[in-house]
Design goal:
The complex is a heterodimer of chains A (306) and B (302).
Chain A: H1 7-16, H2 22-56, H3 62-67, E1 71-72, E2 80-81, H4 84-115, H5 119-133, H6 136-154, H7 162-186, H8 190-198, H9 203-232, H10 235-241, H11 258-265, H12 274-303
Antiparallel strand pairs in A: 1-2
Chain B: H1 2-23, H2 32-40, E1 47-53, H3 58-71, E2 75-82, H4 84-93, E3 98-101, E4 113-114, E5 117-127, E6 135-136, H5 138-145, E7 163-166, H6 172-180, E8 191-192, H7 196-205, E9 209-214, E10 224-225, E11 227-228, H8 235-239, E12 246-254, H9 259-269, H10 271-280, E13 284-285, E14 291-293, E15 299-301
Parallel strand pairs in B: 1-2, 1-3, 6-11, 7-8, 7-9
Antiparallel strand pairs in B: 3-12, 4-12, 5-9, 5-10, 5-12, 5-13, 14-15
The chains are: A mainly alpha (306), B alpha/beta (302).
Amino acid sequence: MEKSIPAKARLLKSEKNWMNGEVRGKIIVFLCAIIMISATIAITIFLATKGVQSFTKNGVSLIEFLTSKQWNPADPAKPLYGALPFIVGSFAVTFLSALIAAPLGIGGAIFMTEIAPSWGRKILQPVIELLVGIPSVVYGFIGLTVLVPFVRTHIGGLGFSLLSGMIVLSIMILPTITTIATDAMSSLPNTLREGSFALGATRWQTIRRVLIPAALPNLLTAIVLGMARAFGEALAVQMVIGNVKDMPHSLLDASATLTTIITLDMGETTFGSPENNILWAMGLLLLIMSFAFILLIRYLSSRRKI
Amino acid sequence: MKRLKKFGLPAMMASLMIVMAACGGGASTDKSNQGASKTTQTKELSGQLVISGSTALQPLVAAAAEEFMNKNPKVSIQVNGGGSGTGLSQVSQGAVQIGNSDVFAEDKKITGLTDNKVAVVGMTAAINPKVGIKDIKKADLIKVFTGKITNWKELGGADQKITLVNRPESSGTRAIFNKFALDGAKPAEGITQDASNTVKKIISETPGAIGYLAFSYLTDNSVTPLSIDGVAPTAENVQSGKFPVWAYEHMYTKGQPTDLEKAFLDYMMSDEVQTGLVTKQGYLPVSKMQVQRDAQGNTTKK
């Protein structure tokens, strides 16, 4: 007899029991979204208020912070707040590691999607994904134990150098770039490949002239995401880069990045002191850079859609 | 109802997270555990202590806290690290009951704290064993660290370039080494690491490296501790005041210590800890010091 009840009546019944239906699902999902958004906004506000205190309360000049090479915030007589060497160091390791990881990552993606999709993906994908699971302190320790002595004896310098930092970072960002590049390449419609083959193009010509240009916005997104990861990495870099506060002049010079200086000094300074505030300012700078990276990604991915 | 519960849990966790996210906006989180511990204290020694700060002192305090909790089962003590600066800030804000520090609170411009010196730690310059020297004049040590001497052969060692391994600018160990071993000279730029174990590893692996370490890290032959002006870096020489590079390990309370804080600090100063854990972990007992030092760094005979 139940079937004789009209649909409308049944619908009303389920609406009454709202905790079991549409509304509840909506609430949960909205709640999740609101939490994520408010957490991000809270972090941004907190970092911004802490970060600007050096400039508003402690009277540090923003120009000095961004352009001076002299760093000595703990000096009671004449504190110096020039963060330029760290900014340069951060950008140097980020771009250099992307320079290594981007060709490797995109090459691996092409291998997995175009050259050997069946067995290549089965082997390479887990190998690459394994790299994600290794904690950064382990990368740092391997770098310190193996890479630094290797660079010192075979290439030169102290071993603690931009070069070591860039090698460690490029391995760390490789999974990010490879995974996103693989997704980009495999989401290309098959008609592109078939059309190219039909015109008589070889496989390599198809990859170079058709597939890579078509996937380019997403490939660039992959690289920028990798760079964002490299820019924010602290622990592994700290162990191999040497943390020297001078401006690096070559790849073999020891250097420092914004993140390594923050992690080295944060625990030893007291909250609210000028030395502590300037570290927050550096944190704010990292956040601004990460916003810039995200804007760049949005711009790149909106440029061309397939 | 069963299904309702199943979905109620994530919803509850979600609302908890909102509260936590809201707290993150200000410094209000720091004050939350203060009230709880103060009110739970009673006369028969129960309650909760939260201690944070100096990573150098953390192992000693953690070991002592464990013993203390065995003796007083109703007491719960939590020992965190975080660094001297963190310890001092948190205790002065009331976020923790005791803040551990390698440096005097006055050095970090923090007042209103009660100082308890629980141990002494000696430090000295440590070099790569292949350099081949064991003793250095203080004047030469200063020249090495300020970059005026750049090769060990000038001091009778191997023909190796000198590599400095420093601590971060705000490090307490660095401040003490600069003050008492380098007479306040500003060291030249060098490799900088914050963890003593990493510093030791770098010195032992890098040819011609020199850094500074607490005595407790100088237990094996992987690095060579240097005598300064012929005075060996030993516990006896620190206690008699002959070896100048040492520091107190402080445990600060805000204002006067409460019953439980006092009981634990007394335990730290008891013979049991001072001659047991303190010496075992490579620190020196405060009671055996024949000299004392004030916050300005003036050393006097006791």
